[in-house]
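WARN no homologs supplied; continuing
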Amino acid sequence: MKLRRLRLENFRQHVDSLIRFEDGMTAIVGPNGSGKSTVLEAITFALYGQQRSNKDTIRFYWSENRKRARVELEFELDGKRYLLERSEAEASLSHLDGKERHELSRGLREVTLASEKLLSLSYEQFKNSFCAEQKGLAFLEFKSMGARQDEIARMLGFDRLKGAALIAKERAKSLRDKVSGLQMGTGNEEELIRHVAEAKTRVEVATDEAAKASVQKDSLEKRFKPAQDLSEKATNYLDILGRETALFEQAKAFRQAVNVAETEAVAAKGDAQVLALLIPKEQEYQAAETKLAELAVAREAHQGRIELRTQIDHLQKELIKAKASLAALKPVDASETGLAEAEKALAERKRELEEAERAWRADLQDRQSTLDRCEERLRAATQLVAEAEKAIELGVCSECGQSTIEVGTKRLTQRQSDLAERGNEREAARATHALLTERPKELAKLLAALEQAQRALAETQNASAEAARANQERAREQARVDDLERDLAKLNSLLPTDAAPFNADEFTRAQALVNARKVDHETFLRLSGSDKRLALSESRAEETRKIMAEAKALYTELKVERQALGFASEGAAREAIMAFQELHTERQVADKVLLGASQLTQAYQQNLTAAETKLAEYRGRADEIKRSKAEGAMYELTAKELLQLRERLNRSIRPDLEARASDNLNLLTNGRYPVVTLDENFNPTVIEDEIAKPVISGGEEDVVALALRLALSELIQERQGRPMSLLILDEVFGSLDADRRQAVLERLAAIKTRFEQILVISHIEEINQVADQCLYVTRDSRSRACEVTDAPREFASTLF
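OK structure emitted
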């Protein structure tokens, strides 16, 4: 992993800082509190979402509108470039391919899991190997101290061996299950061989039967064609014979139809002669019927005029009665003035009564309050008298300690006087209250006035209602007069003034003439069209004669054709058909026998194939079981060897770490501590002059921890299939003296070739001596924000 770009927005002291990283060693230098370590914290925040305290503390306190903290980290891994973006509420991981950007994950937890998978390191593993945070230099600080061995194994990639062993075990178990499944229902090889032999025998027998049925069918086929031809001729013979019979029957029907048509022609000819004689009478009937229709219309109009005059006379009589009734109903004045005045007077009496009652109740409440106050003062005065009497009994004042006999007697007298006065006040208040508890006479008078106003209003309302009813009755009668006058005018307008008179005698004569000619009219109607029926009957008779001639010619042709077929009689033809049907039935039976034999042969052949298949499957399963057992044994051995290899590698961790850490410690302490050992929990012990030294100073502890961290980082790079390429050290010089500091600088210069990228964060300016590039972090006292540049600033005086 190599860092390429880091951007901090409102992240702790950094309002907007952009840092670009190069290969080699980069020194990040600045005074204490300037925001150097925040750079490392921003890296771990982007990767894992981790920060030193709660989320609210990472936001720049003096930012405008308290904007959210946000970090962008661009890095390379395995030749690919990635971009991490994280804020307090959102995170994303993307793959950068040239100018294109492909999002891989989104969400706080999802991006953290993706980073762990990408780096193959958790946050604790990262900060215990390639990243040493400020005040966190101690070696292997995991939440569970007993997990150090497992955590180191995971960082070194040994867990892949365990995973591979588990996969091998699962594969071995799967193969065992497969073998068990294959062994179930495999059958017996001897029995399968016997089934194959039996199936072959059945196939041979069925094949012989099918061959016999085929010979029988061939024999029938040779006789079938001639018999079929003869049967077809016989069928044709019978068909022609049937057609001859049908033509003969049709000839009978045609002869009868000719006779009917000739009879109908004679009848139609007689009807036509009678119809010619009835034409004058029919004309006379039509004229009389037309005249009768005209007179019927005139009679109906005359009858309507009579009915209309009757209705007019009735309406005139009704109108006279209605006008007389209307004249008897005089209009009544239904003025609302008296009603309004009565309602107003009632409202006034209600208002006066309510005001008087409110005043009475308010006065009564005041008197009750006065009585309550008098009662309270009386109780207080009684209490004071009791206290004065008690003080005289005691003889000494509880407050001042003086004698209370003389003073108490005067006080008692005064208080008894007050008590009597309070009693008189209370009695006077009771008397006044008692007088007000009864309703005043004035209220009774107002109530009587209210009731009188209510009665006056009721009488006024009744009179007004009676006047309204009378006026409504007169209005209804006036409406009836208006309706009658309107209806009478309408009927008069309908009465014609120029109607022709109706002649009843002429109507009677026309009706008698129509009745007299009605029988002739009906005969004329019945005989109408007789000339057309005559022509139609003659045409039908001629057409039927032609059809009879055609049928006779066809009958002669069919007879010649039937005789040419060579059958002596109808019976001989039927015998030929019967013989063919019997042969056809035999042929069908032979077909079924042959088909049954063929199907049986096919079925036995399928049974044979199935038996042979089962035998082949049995032998294939046996081979598969043998191969699966061998493969399962191989996987079990592989799992065992992988776990043993993991154990051997785990056992080699401590010696390898001890050797590498000892080399580092020897260089960092100028040979004072040439050896460091680790116990089972990876707790270090230094060796000085071949003597174990468990107690060392704080500065020496940091040097030992640094030596172990460098050793672990180198070991991870070698054991991991993919180099981390990155080492981050934050303030590793804090507790070191000048000599140790120089030794650390020399060691860092020596390991630059092992790490493609090293970040060293420090307030010690000497780091510039071995760094390939330097970044300077300063804090502006006015804006309270940090600034990161590659140019040195004048802050040397503030470093210590």
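Residues 212 and 594 are 8 Å apart (CA to CA).
OK
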